[in-house]
Amino acid sequence: MTQTKKQSGYDRLLNVLYIVCGSFAFLAYFAYFIKLLIWREGTLSYVAAVLAILVSGIPLFFKRFWERILPQKVFFVLKNIFAWGMCFYMVTFLILCTYIFATNSMQTHPEDLDSETVFVVYGAGLRGERPGSVLRKRLDKAAEYLEAVPGSVCIVTGGQGPDEVMPEADAMKNYLVEDMGIDPARIYTDPESGNTIENIKNALAIMEEEGIADYTMVSVSNAFHIPRIKLICSRLDCKGEFVLAKDPNPFSLFTTLVREYMSYGKLFLLGTE
């Protein structure tokens, strides 16, 4: 009798995890896929989103079908794998979100910096030849600090995406010069990098080439991005400060965190090479 109750209780727990965690994963990647339809990224992002939707959606919506056609023991094993796998995803996703926002309690202020400062602004997508909304927020914050710290310089870094008409770095420089009135002589461009690791490596190379390797490097990005920048910098033995740009709207922020989860996974699996 006791054994039956324990098994029944475990089954109820398993069913809750199966539905709640599976639904969370499905909705997360479905929302991310919708964002990709609006703001396009590389092919790999679409593949990852579709695979995640299928992996979470097929067991979730066709549970009774698999229960009918599979042997009971096989279905029970697969049910456990799915339920606990989705639980792992949901819990680690929430832990990552907590980590991201808990590590951004402090940032560098203009009065803490001198003329030997280089602000590194990370690309985030274009709309035609203009920076997208997330990227504009980063550039606006960079311009604010460039004006507040005379003599400082800026590196704008970002290559040309598959659906972009020009390198992000070139559009970023144009925005800073034409819209924000920043002297073009204070802006260096990296139009080649395709991800955050390359952003940082290329920025460091530019600092070396321009004789400003001893300057304080200040990364300018959003709260969701800064912790990964810090992690990459620590792995590259690169020290620096950071400045927070305003985060995007709640939908964009949530879907960006879904993407950040995949980026952290890639970083831990492949490293910074």
Provide a quick synopsis of the model.
The protein has 273 residues and is an alpha/beta fold. The chain is built from nine helices and seven strands.
Description:
The protein is α/β, with parallel strands linked by helices. Helix content is 61%, strand content 11%. It has helices spanning 2-38, 43-61, 63-69, 72-102, 133-148, 168-179, 196-209, 226-235, 250-270; strands spanning 117-122, 126-127, 130-131, 153-157, 187-190, 216-222, 241-245. The strands form two sheets. It has a five-stranded parallel β-sheet with strand order 5-4-1-6-7. The protein has a two-stranded antiparallel sheet with strand order 2-3. β4 (153-157), α6 (168-179) and β5 (187-190) form a beta-alpha-beta unit. The chain is elongated, with a radius of gyration of 23 Å. 32% of the residues are buried. Residues 1-5 have low confidence and may be disordered.
Structural class: alpha/beta
Q: Which value, in Å, is the CA radius of gyration?
A: 23 Å
Uncertain segments of ≥5 residues (pLDDT<50)?
1-5
Helix content: 55-70%
Number of strands: 7
- What is the mean pLDDT? 91
Order of helix and strand elements from N to C terminus: HHHHEEEHEHEHEHEH
How far apart are the first and last residues' alpha carbons, in Å? Answer: 57 Å
Overall, the morphology is elongated
List the strand order in the largest sheet: 5-4-1-6-7
Continuous helix count: 9
Describe the sheet with the most strands: 5 strands, parallel
| Residues in β-strands, percent | 5-15%
